[in-house]
Amino acid sequence: MTSSDWAVRVYYEDTDAGGVVYHANYLCYLERARTEWLRALGFSQYRMNEEDSLVFTVVSLQLDFLRPAKLDDQLIVRSRAQLSGGASVQFAQEIWREGETLLTGQVRVACLDAQSFRPKRLPASLRKVLQS
């Protein structure tokens, strides 16, 4: 599975004074969706850190804000992943509300050694999923 959808509700804490999602909170939605994508594949970021000494970090981000999300909206965050290199994954992510695209983005995530923070090759099991 290189693609997944994750549902999220917009809460008051996510919005500005006008009831519109504050731009930085979209990053939280995208991050959580990528984490849930990994979890659905059977990979725990906590376990990968503890057992394999690896962490993930965003190294490149490009977003287009098309329409605002608002208080109490039910959103779908779609994440499509593809292998980008030996130590990175490229995600195409979108946020939708009732069939309307609110945000599109490209996010490149690097795999790093948890101690040195130097690039570290993706685990073979994850690479296999991304290549299929």
Keywords:
Thiol Ester Dehydrase, Chain A, five-stranded antiparallel beta sheet, elongated, 132 residues, alpha+beta
Structure description:
The protein has one domain: Roll (Thiol Ester Dehydrase, Chain A). It contains 3 helices and 5 strands, in the order βααββββα. The chain is of the alpha+beta class and 132 residues long. The mean pLDDT is 95.
The number of helical segments is: 3
Helix percentage = 25-40%
CATH superfamily: Hotdog Thioesterase
User: Could you tell me the mean pLDDT?
Assistant: 95
Explain the layout of strands and helices.
Blueprint lengths: L2 E7 L13 H18 L4 H8 L1 E12 L8 E12 L2 E10 L2 E14 L10 H8 L1
Antiparallel strand pairs: 1-3, 2-5, 3-4, 4-5
Briefly summarize what is shown.
With 132 residues, the protein is α+β, with helices and mostly antiparallel strands.
